[in-house]
Amino acid sequence: MSGALRGLRVIEMGQLLAGPFCGQLLGDMGADVIKVEPPGAGDPMRDWGQGSEKVQWEVIARNKRSVSANLRVPEGQALVRRLIATADVVIENFKPGTMEKWGLGPDRLLAEQPSLIIARMSGYGQTGPYSDRAGFGGIGEAMGGWRYIVGEPDRPPSRMGVSIGDTLTATYGCMGILAALHHRTATGEGQVIDAALYESVLQVMEGLVPEYDRMGLIRERSGSILTGIAPSNVYTCKDGEYMIGANKDSLWKRLATAMGLPELGDDPRYATHLARGENQLELDELINAWTRTLTVDEVDALMIAHSIPAGRVYRAPEMIADPHFQAREAIIEVETERYGPLKMQGAFPKFSATPGGVRRPAPSQVGQHNAEIYGELLGIGGDELAAMAAAGVV
């Protein structure tokens, strides 16, 4: 479980979601991620999440070591510059200009260390007229087009139950780092990755922009359906909901047969992709009328028998109990420092030769590894470190 990125050192300087999730991805793949936190409370993510116990930290901070450094004072800035000098990658998601204000901007860092890779995640990017604006994930989702198309047509824009703007940006940041590592292997050159929240969301908006450019079409909210793609919805059974995706012609014919209505497979109202799109609401009502007569288990068995893409609508309890999740270790149990054994999502994607995983739990204390890291990498002794702590530097 060493991971494909074993030997890579990453300095994570971000807070909340985008930067730390990028660090989590790299750590899961084997990188040594050193998280720099402000002395005292540390990353606000330590206290985020739903419920009385804030366990989300245990996922996003796994495979990381924590050091504290006060970046608002020159001594803390100098300390982190020394730490960065030992690293391959720096991750940050502060407001543009903040790193420069601290003497940690790319111009200075790359001048001192030309092979360094710096991943910068922000609301609007490092350039452009909006670059100095504050930006959170939800703002990127709105500007990137996501929020407008999510929800019911007769209601205001909705949101997902997770911070998809942040995690998309972190994923693009991680992808950029991996590409930059390949370039560095060939040339020895480092570089800056500029990942903007709104652009990361925009990238997954499929045909939204060219549809408008070519036809003047503006995508609208469509609730649980994707307009023109049918059938592909969640349908009501006797004892729950079930997702069926039979929007290809051959799949629709198989679904009609599974429903005991094979003649519908060739019905001109439904036989082609375009026809099903035009009659989407009518078709969904027809399928719903059928699924309501069956249990989820009964529909599931029919979908498997007829090789139709379909699946149960899971919550956490169903995920934990599912044998497929168990067989692939999609849900793992980690011995955490604060909560003991804790189930959480595993490390993805799967690697055949260099599997990733959770090598260490999230650090429970801010600066938990100060002595270990500052001593090991920078040669700072205990007395000097104690003096720095007393002065508010760490």
From TrEMBL:
<dbReference type="InterPro" id="IPR003673">
    <property type="entry name" value="CoA-Trfase_fam_III"/>
</dbReference>
<dbReference type="GO" id="GO:0008410">
    <property type="term" value="F:CoA-transferase activity"/>
</dbReference>
<dbReference type="InterPro" id="IPR023606">
    <property type="entry name" value="CoA-Trfase_III_dom_1_sf"/>
</dbReference>
<dbReference type="InterPro" id="IPR050483">
    <property type="entry name" value="CoA-transferase_III_domain"/>
</dbReference>
<protein>
    <submittedName>
        <fullName>CoA transferase</fullName>
    </submittedName>
</protein>
<keyword id="KW-0808">Transferase</keyword>
<dbReference type="Pfam" id="PF02515">
    <property type="entry name" value="CoA_transf_3"/>
</dbReference>
<dbReference type="InterPro" id="IPR044855">
    <property type="entry name" value="CoA-Trfase_III_dom3_sf"/>
</dbReference>
